[in-house]
Structure formats: C-alpha cells, structure tokens
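Human: We require from you a standard protein entry with sequence in single-letter code and fold as tokens, and nothing else.

Assistant:
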Amino acid sequence: MGESKKRKKRGGKKGKEEQQAIPSPSAKRTKLKEPSTFLEKMRARLSGGHFRMINEKLYTCTGKEALDYFKEEPSLFDMYHAGYKSQMSNWPEQPVNVIIKWLKKQSPSFVIADFGCGEALIAKTLKNKVFSLDLVSNDPNVIACDMANTPLVSSSVNVAVFCLSLMGTNYQSYIEESNRVLKPGGWLLIAEVKSRFDPNTGGADPEKFSNAISELGFKSVKKDFSNKMFILFYFTKKDKQISKRKEIEWPTLKPCLYKRR
C-alpha cells in the first residue's frame, strides 16, 4: 500500500514536469518569428552585397563592357537598381527631382535626352518628348544602348541630362556623345555625387572638370554646391563649334563605392 502511494506520487511529479516542458502557444509564435527575422536580415545583407559588387563593376569598366555585362545576365540590372533605390532613400533630396523642377520651368517643346535614366522618372513626370537611355530596358519607352554610342540623331535634342550616371571609366565619351546630339544653344545638366569632386579625398577638381567640358564646346553657366550629397553642373552648347580641338585633359572621377551598412 505504501509502495503504490510512492509510485503515484512519483508518477504525479513526472506528469507535472512533462506539462511544464510543453511550450505555450505564445512561445511557439515567438520562436517562429525569429527565423523569419533572421532570414530577412540575411536577404538584405546578400542583396546589399550584390549591389556593391555590381556598383563597383560599373565604376571600373567601360560603358561597352557594362552593356555586355548586363546582356549576359539582365537580372543583375534589376538587382543593381533595387540596391540603388535603397541607397537613395537615405538622401534628404534626390538630384533627379531638382533637375525635374528646373526642366518644368523650360519650354514644354524642349526635347530631352536622359542618359542613364534608371526608372525613367523624367519621362514619366514631364510632358516633353524624352529619350530615356540606359544599359538595359525593361520598358518599351527606354532605349537600351551604350551611352557613348546612342541611336539619336545629331543636333536633335535641347537638353541632355546625366543624373548620377557618369559611371564608366570612359565617361568623357558619354559627354562627347551628348555634344553630338545636342542642338546649338542646348543645355547639358550633370548631377554627381559630391565626394567625387572633393580633391582633398582623391576626388576631381570641379574646376578642371568644368574646363574640360568647356573645351569640348560648352559654356559653363552654373555650378550648384548647395546640396550636401551632390553637385549640379549647368552648361550650354556653344553655337559655333571648334572644328579642330586640342587633346582634352579629362580629370579622373573616382568611383563612388558604397560602404556596408
């Protein structure tokens, strides 16, 4: 009789321990959330890593090499722009919006060439005729091409825009192409990351950059240093082009490489 009571007591104790070991429904939900959050963080890190890799590639190769790169694997272009969009979300002001604001004050008859258009925001915002140019086109309104060799007709546009798109090692050939397609008196607008024009940290001298473009056949109208993140250059194409130019000394624009966050 005493033995059976002891066994019952031991059995009761064991049952109690087993009950305590069973997790509550709320505990299960907490554990399920952890892997999900972890995976999201891992995906974000992998995505950011891919963006930085592609970004470095674009800054350290020619435009033709970049075009071939994306032709071989078009999905990388989408990956790059997703990362780019994420980076831009941290900027207090977007340079493309400043350019759009300026363009809205110009004639609606102006024809615009958007070199390195990305999401083609200029074309989507304005009523002007806009040629949106980029390395890859997922949009029927975007022309896929090397920006040094576009299908645009010579002297056919009023405004050429480079918004954070002077990325190739042969960036000067993009500007030469804009000179070809611009009408005399047409505008050239360039927005670039400010650090690329800080001589104290290895960047180009903005005056030398401006002088090189002027030697190509442009007149410097304005340099806007007011923004913390980017510089805006405004040029107009001279009516009379120099038939024979001396060799232009183009400054090297250092790559804009994003740090891991």
About this structure: Residues 25-59 form the longest helix (35 residues). The beta strands are 111-115, 129-134, 142-144, 157-163, 182-193, 218-224, 230-237. The CA atoms of residues 116 and 192 lie 12 Å apart.
